[in-house]
Amino acid sequence: MTGVTLTSAGLDPRRRRILFRCWHRGIREMDLVFGQFAESEIATLSEAELDEFETIMAEEDNDLVRWIMGTWPVPERFQTPMFARLAAYKPDFDKPLRTPE
């Protein structure tokens, strides 16, 4: 079961792949943060922003949780507008989940 609500039909292959990966992180909290952020932003991100987003996504979930929650300082390499947007995004943890059709 995922929380995907955005159809990927209108997205290019790269954006579809990123959206899928955002909802299949491994840690449910990161699924919600990355998945809902991607659903909200993926269609409008530039190629450079997609590059940076994929770089952030390549990090370990346990590290990302600590950086996003503020329990560990964010490494200098991620002190960027994209990381700030992601960390500031507040997912709706009460949003009903549905399975893709």
SSE order and pairing:
Elements: H1 13-22, H2 28-41, H3 47-57, H4 61-69, H5 81-88
Helix pairs in contact: 1-2
Keywords, separated by commas or semicolons:
single chain; 101 residues; mainly alpha; DNA polymerase, domain 1; 5 helices; globular
Distance separating the two termini: 11 Å
**CATH architecture, please?**
Orthogonal Bundle
What integer is the average pLDDT?
86
Question: How is the biggest beta sheet arranged?
Answer: none
Envelope shape? globular
CATH-level-4 superfamily name? Flavinator of succinate dehydrogenase
Q: Give the CATH class.
A: Mainly Alpha
Portion in beta strands: under 5%
Helicity range: 40-55%
Q: Spans of 5+ residues with little confidence (pLDDT < 50)?
A: none
Radius of gyration: 13 Å
* Helix and strand run: HHHHH
The CATH topology: DNA polymerase, domain 1
The count of domains is 1
- Number-wise, the strands total 0
Number of helices: 5
Structural class comes to mainly alpha
Structural overview:
By secondary structure, the chain is mostly helical. The protein has a single domain (13-88), classed as Flavinator of succinate dehydrogenase (DNA polymerase, domain 1, Orthogonal Bundle). 51% of the residues lie in helices and 0% in strands. It starts with 12 loop residues before the first helix and ends in a 13-residue tail after the last helix. The relative contact order is 0.19. The mean pLDDT is 86.
Brief characterization of the structure:
The chain is mainly alpha-helical. It is 51% helix and 0% strand.
